[in-house]
Each structure stands twice: as C-alpha cells, then as structure tokens.
Amino acid sequence: MAEPSLRASTKAITASQSLESFHKLWTTSRPSQRPPRRLGLAVSGGADSMALAYLSKNWERSRPNEISITAFVVDHKAREESTREANTVAKWLGDMVGLNEDIKTEILPLTWPETADKVSAFETHARRLRFQALGRACRDRDIEALLMGHHLDDNVETTLWRLCTGASGAGLAGIPGVTKIPECHGIYGVSESGSTYTLLPKKDTKESNNTKESKQTNTTEQKEKKKSISTGGILICRPLLPYPKANLLATCHENNIPYVSDPTNFDPTLTPRNAIRSLLSSDKLPQALRTPSILSLIKSSQSLLQDSTSLSNTLLTQTKLHSFFPETGTLMLRFPSHHINLLDKRTPLKNTKPSKNPARRTHQIQSLTLRRITELLSPFPENHFPLRSFEDFVPRVFSHPHSDNGTGKRHPFTLGGVMFKPDSEDKNTWFLSRQPFMRGRLPISQFEVPFPAPGRSTEYSSWSLWDNRFWFRLGVSMDQNLGYTAGKLNREGNTLSLLLRPFQPSDLQLIRDIHGKSGSGNKADFQAQLAVFQDQLKRQVPGQTRFTLPLLVAQSSSQNMNHELPLALPTLHMWLPGMREYLKLPTSGRLHWEWMYKMIDKDALRSMGWL
C-alpha cells in the first residue's frame, strides 16, 4: 500500500508550536522540575523523528542558551545494510535544508550478546538493546530527557489495540507524554538513579508508638544517620503527541526534509497494528471506535487515573506513618480505624463521571493505596504487580462500612514482596518489611573493587542495584604518603573481590569459627564485641527482618579452597565483630562503601505525614 496522501488542509507544524507542546507536557507531568536544557533525540529516519529533528533544532537556534540538542541514530547491526542505513540518516541530519548549522549527531551501534538469537523475538531483543544504548548515551552526556516522535495516530492505534485485547483503566490512558525510560531497570544513571537526596522526616513526626516492634526500631543510631534516597534517571518526552501523522508529513514536505517510508507499515495483512491503521484510515469502523471517540476515551481514562491518585492521597492522609527506616527496609504504620467515604468528600475532576458503583470504586482506591504503601519496601519494580492482585487483601487492613474489623484476629500475610505483621496491641497498626528470601533465590551482586592508582586516594566500583532496593558502590582508599605502587597491593591482581548477599543466621557462627581457628586476639574482647553487635541488631532490626539485610562479604582463597569472609552490614554501617582485621589490605588501605535507597513515592510519604 502506498504512503497515505496529504490532505490539502493539513498544515506543517511550526517550531514554536512544538516547543509550546514540549513545555506543556513537561510542566504538566513534572510541575516541580524545570524543563531540561540538554535534550537527546532518537532518530530512526522516518518522517516522525525527522520532523522532530528539524523542529527541535530550531528550538536550539532560537534559544541557544536554554536548549541543546543531540540526535542519536541507532545502528542495529542486525543486517548488512544496518550500518549503511544509519550513516544515511546521519548524513540527512547534517544536510537538512533550512538550518544554519548541522544537528549534532551520534551513531550508536548495538552490541548483541553472543547467545542472542536475532531471529527469535527479534523485536523484543532489539527494543531492549536500543533503549539501553539510548539511555546510556544520554547519561554519559548529561542529557536528562530523550525526545521521541510519537504522534496522535500512534496514540489512537495503541489504545484501540489495547481495547481489542481487553485492557482497561491505565491501559486505555494512551501513550504518556512524559515517562521513565523503559527496558533499563538496574542501569545506574539511566533508570530511577543518578542523583540522591536526603530524607528528612518532619521534626514533629513521632518515629514510634507504644508497640513492641517500633520500640525495637526506634534507636538513636537510626535517627542520626542520613537517609539517602535515589532519584534521577532519563525521561522520555513526546512533544508531537497532540499532532496527527499528516501534520508531521506536511512538516517534512514543506521544509524539504528527507525521510524513509517502510511500505510494510501499510500492509493490513502483516500485523494487527497495520490492520487497525488501515481500518482507521478507511472510516469503516463504528463511530465508537473512530479517532474522535478513542481520543475521548483516552482523555476520560487519564482523568480517571488522576482522580484515583488524588483520592489515594486523601486516603493516605488518614494513614499514620509512625516509622520508616530505609536502612533496614522497614516501616510501621497505622491504617484508618474507620471507613472513609472518599467519594462523598471530593469534587470530581473535569472529564471524570460519577461512579456507577461507589463501593467498587472505593475498593479500587484502597487497592491502589495498598500498592503504593507496599512499593515503598518491595523488592520489585514499580507497578510490577497488577492492581487486581491487591484487591483481596484490602479487607485485612482497611475498614468496611458494613462490618466490624475489630472483632477478628489479624494474621501476618505477604503481598507484593512485603511481609505485613500485625501489632499485638493495636489492631490497626502493622509492621512492614521485605518478605523472607526464597530458598535458592538469594540476590547476589559481585564487585571487583579497584585499588587506587598512584596519585589517587580512592577508587570506587560502579554502582550496582541489589535486590531492587539498594544501590551500592564500594571503594578502597590508600594513604598517598606511604609511597606504595599498584604492583605491591595484591599479589593476585589490582582489585578486591567482594560480594553482597543477604545476612544469614549461619554468619554469626561463621565469624565465631574464623576467630577460633585464627588463634589471634583476645577471646574475651571478641565475645564482648559480639554481644554489643547482637544487642545493636536486636534494637535496630527486629526478629527475622535482620535476615533481609545486605551483607558485605570478601571472597578469599586459602589452601586451594574458596571461602567467604562476612565483613559488614553496610546499610547499618556496622562491621561484624573482629572481621575488619581479617580483611587483607595493605597497612594503609581502607574499605569504603556508599549506598542509597531505591527511588520511592515521595507523595505517599508526604501524604502520610512523614515529610
């Protein structure tokens, strides 16, 4: 099928229109953040991305001190023609008519794993590698947002396809104008990381109530330590989302912008997406499935999501957060003691119709709120579990208007990777922690920590995400005044092999055995250190929760046998008794660690009175 023809009334998009769209999308999505100065641009060579390249370059020309554009062209390395095609697109960007200077362009060649099957699930693998390459390129160039050329037609087609597959709720809210970069989870500086802030609770926030669990966690040590929380990462922004494809084509034609057109995109027999595109262009669909109706559906779905978040925040204001300790991955909170009529006390947002089933709507809001609370501690990415998986647990923590929740006995349960443990004295208070690890599925992160080169005091490893909860990096510092050389540091190489794994009950016995076999040191001193260590654990990390903490371990070899040396609980800044001395570093060497907690929902903490 040929490329669709332009209608005579279709107008090209101007640079000022697209820039206004960008600013509107950004300020609506991120009202507390200024629009970024450095912008990346994903360019495939199609009309969408080439039109956006032309427009965004004009932003830069008109506001050179406010906007800097870098275009990225991905060389998929999947076919012999891939490199040639990428070079062609890069040349088009350099030769674009009407621009006084070239668009700064970089080609990103993909590196396929040797085990990857380029035939099986090619699109899935290519998408992941493409976004990871784009994300790393943005991070390495201090680019905060990546522009993409999705347009109104893409939005309608995507939503109609989701509607056909049974989606509802958030699935019908269309393509987001601003969103976190996908396919990059765990890549530091790309996904929900790269910066940090210090979590400071309100001075009048009480970190405990008269419960056994919270008394154990309410310690001076924890209060005085800074709580570093991860933030940052690359965002995707789609400034052309309000415009139909025809406007983008008109922009290319009017400004003599070259682009490639894939004829397979218009063959309705190849893919369901193509079939939907063909039906939409032919006006053969029922009125309820045509573009205006789908756009109305998207708008109402977006309003419903905004209303849900607003109502969830209202419910969270009635939920009291007594304690939140990122270093132990625990919190204590009190759910409302009575049923709250959320729908009776608010004015619905624009485009949001009154609920036909208030009880069902309230239950959905409670489920959303329960998921938001759970995700503060969960070892899974955001929205990993569907909302419906939380619905059956709502009656366990939220009061129902037609039942008495005070008569039944509360029982512990696990939800979304988090253990909920009821308080023995207050039926509405719960202690939350990461669920116990499953046997054989312990998270382990390996580190090769470099010794510093001469002239440098400290070398750090790269940041690594452990258990989807903590970011870590490890380092070794040396005294520069002792005149060491790198070759003297380690007979087996210039790195220190360390790993992070969960703290286990057997580790205390292991350090007893290590100390006993060494025959060095005072036994009474060791026992005293061990008693202090165990007392600190008892006060800071109650019960079995301590065995969800990360443990720093040195990998050592002796007598042709490999064994581990448990060293420290880094989030508590606690060395295990006697183990600092067993770490074989040069006399002047010291081991350091830095950590930060995963990105979390600050609005949830603020609503619960913590911030």
Automatic annotation (TrEMBL):
<dbReference type="GO" id="GO:0008033">
    <property type="term" value="P:tRNA processing"/>
</dbReference>
<dbReference type="GO" id="GO:0032267">
    <property type="term" value="F:tRNA(Ile)-lysidine synthase activity"/>
</dbReference>
<keyword id="KW-0547">Nucleotide-binding</keyword>
<protein>
    <recommendedName>
        <fullName>tRNA(Ile)-lysidine synthetase</fullName>
        <ecNumber>6.3.4.19</ecNumber>
    </recommendedName>
</protein>
<feature type="compositionally biased region" description="Basic and acidic residues">
    <location>
        <begin position="201"/>
        <end position="215"/>
    </location>
</feature>
<dbReference type="InterPro" id="IPR011063">
    <property type="entry name" value="TilS/TtcA_N"/>
</dbReference>
<feature type="region of interest" description="Disordered">
    <location>
        <begin position="198"/>
        <end position="226"/>
    </location>
</feature>
<dbReference type="InterPro" id="IPR012795">
    <property type="entry name" value="tRNA_Ile_lys_synt_N"/>
</dbReference>
<dbReference type="InterPro" id="IPR012094">
    <property type="entry name" value="tRNA_Ile_lys_synt"/>
</dbReference>
<dbReference type="Pfam" id="PF01171">
    <property type="entry name" value="ATP_bind_3"/>
</dbReference>
<keyword id="KW-0067">ATP-binding</keyword>
<feature type="domain" description="tRNA(Ile)-lysidine/2-thiocytidine synthase N-terminal">
    <location>
        <begin position="40"/>
        <end position="278"/>
    </location>
</feature>
<keyword id="KW-0819">tRNA processing</keyword>
<dbReference type="GO" id="GO:0005524">
    <property type="term" value="F:ATP binding"/>
</dbReference>
<keyword id="KW-0436">Ligase</keyword>
<dbReference type="InterPro" id="IPR014729">
    <property type="entry name" value="Rossmann-like_a/b/a_fold"/>
</dbReference>
